[in-house]
From TrEMBL:
It comes from the Eukaryota. This is Oocyte-expressed protein. Its main location: cytoplasm. It comes from Myotis brandtii (Brandt's bat). It is found in: Cytoplasm; Nucleus. The keyword Membrane does not apply. Residues 37-120 form the KH-like RNA-binding domain.
Amino acid sequence: MVDQPGAVVQEDPWMSAQALDRLLKMPLLLPRIHTWPWWFPALKLRDPLVFYLEACLADPIFGKTRVMIPEIEWMNQDLLMVEKVNYGSLIEITVFGQPRVQNRVKSVLLSLAARHRENRA
């Protein structure tokens, strides 16, 4: 046991304690941006659905660092691009995927936007 004063600590030959400490202190890698998932066929990139929302609604819907976008993409089997336009007062949301999925995602995001507008007012 390590807690006993006379105990001998055997180090793992694969990883020392200092190396583990260094690994734990390293920052986490950010997710890649715009990497197409394996399940997404390139044919669905032809007709994207584009709509706009107020920029102040982007953080409540997608998170401060847009962490919700990959989850939304995975759940709906679509791709989302969220970009600021018009000097930061609007965000452009581009949805790639099947038309019914595009409409569903747009409907969900507009419903979330309406709910956040009501809560903000």
